[in-house]
Automatic annotation (TrEMBL):
<comment type="function">
    <text>Pyrophosphatase that catalyzes the hydrolysis of nucleoside triphosphates to their monophosphate derivatives, with a high preference for the non-canonical purine nucleotides XTP (xanthosine triphosphate), dITP (deoxyinosine triphosphate) and ITP. Seems to function as a house-cleaning enzyme that removes non-canonical purine nucleotides from the nucleotide pool, thus preventing their incorporation into DNA/RNA and avoiding chromosomal lesions.</text>
</comment>
<dbReference type="Pfam" id="PF01725">
    <property type="entry name" value="Ham1p_like"/>
</dbReference>
<protein>
    <recommendedName>
        <fullName>dITP/XTP pyrophosphatase</fullName>
        <ecNumber>3.6.1.66</ecNumber>
    </recommendedName>
</protein>
<keyword id="KW-0547">Nucleotide-binding</keyword>
<feature type="binding site">
    <location>
        <position position="70"/>
    </location>
    <ligand>
        <name>Mg(2+)</name>
    </ligand>
</feature>
<feature type="active site" description="Proton acceptor">
    <location>
        <position position="70"/>
    </location>
</feature>
<dbReference type="InterPro" id="IPR029001">
    <property type="entry name" value="ITPase-like_fam"/>
</dbReference>
<comment type="subunit">
    <text>Homodimer.</text>
</comment>
<keyword id="KW-0479">Metal-binding</keyword>
<feature type="binding site">
    <location>
        <begin position="153"/>
        <end position="156"/>
    </location>
    <ligand>
        <name>substrate</name>
    </ligand>
</feature>
<feature type="binding site">
    <location>
        <position position="41"/>
    </location>
    <ligand>
        <name>Mg(2+)</name>
    </ligand>
</feature>
<keyword id="KW-0460">Magnesium</keyword>
<feature type="binding site">
    <location>
        <begin position="8"/>
        <end position="13"/>
    </location>
    <ligand>
        <name>substrate</name>
    </ligand>
</feature>
<keyword id="KW-0546">Nucleotide metabolism</keyword>
<feature type="binding site">
    <location>
        <position position="71"/>
    </location>
    <ligand>
        <name>substrate</name>
    </ligand>
</feature>
<dbReference type="InterPro" id="IPR002637">
    <property type="entry name" value="RdgB/HAM1"/>
</dbReference>
<comment type="similarity">
    <text>Belongs to the HAM1 NTPase family.</text>
</comment>
Length: 199
């Protein structure tokens, strides 16, 4: 069976990828299965650069096929912040609740029409027999004034998707996996998976 390593230590992402890859007959591992792998420093200025850094670092260590996700929340009223700093917006310890509190306080007083935002996801794929490449996906929404829902992870409770009338934390995991930025990026990765891995 072909196997792929998802170069993430984020449990929320790992769960979503397990579902997103479930239709493929492949062994899917994440860095949660390799606790001794050190943290990879994300020194890039773009999601794409960081995804490539993570994918290539793990591909070097493993000689396996690797997919890395670099993603985050881009808020128009905050000039694109938290952006590539989404995971660590309120400090190096990566606390989702503190990150949400920081965004809510910065968005205090911003009127509804100016609360537009998107989740963005860059996926990089690296492997022993092809050049590393990236695909991406996005999901448009609005930043609420308060949390709603308990599914998902990260900023999901404050990210409202108008077409669903729900925050991402109010959707079932299955529904989030149909319309999220990560799902959109995975759709763009599918042809490569078919070609490179399912051969
Ligand atoms: O509400 C959310 N729903 C999502 O679907 C989502 N996707 C990304 N994010 C935020 O963006 C950071 C990624 O940063 P990031 O790509 O560096 O990942 P990370 O550091 O958490 O793990 P790793 O994959 O690097 O190991 C995450 O921590 C979250 O704060 C999301 N928030
Ligand atoms: Mg990270």
């Amino acid at each position: 069976m072909k196997s792929v390593i998802i170069a993430t230590k984020n449990k929320g992402k790992a769960k979503e990828f397990e579902r997103l890859f479930s239709k493929h007959d492949m062994e899917v591992k994440t860095l949660i299965d390799f606790p001794d792998v050190p943290d990879i420093e994300e020194t890039g200025e773009t999601f794409e650069e960081n995804a490539i850094i993570k994918a290539e670092a793990i591909a070097k260590l493993s000689s396996s096929y690797v997919v890395a996700d670099d993603s985050g929340l881009v808020i128009d009223a905050l000039d694109g912040r938290p952006g590539v700093f989404s995971a660590r917006y309120a400090g190096a310890e990566k606390n989702d609740e503190d990150n949400i509190d920081k965004v809510l306080s910065e968005m205090n007083g911003v009127t509804e029409k100016d609360r537009t935002a998107r989740f963005y996801c860059a996926l990089a794929m690296a492997g022993p027999d092809f050049e590393t490449f990236t695909v991406n996906g996005a999901c448009e929404g609005l930043i609420l004034n308060e949390r709603r829902g308990s599914e998902g992870f990260g900023y999901d409770p404050i990210f409202f998707v108008p077409s669903e009338g729900k925050t991402m934390a109010e959707m079932s995991p299955a529904r989030k996996n149909e319309l999220s930025h990560r799902a959109a990026a995975m759709k763009n990765l599918e042809p490569y998976i078919e070609k490179l891995l399912v051969k």
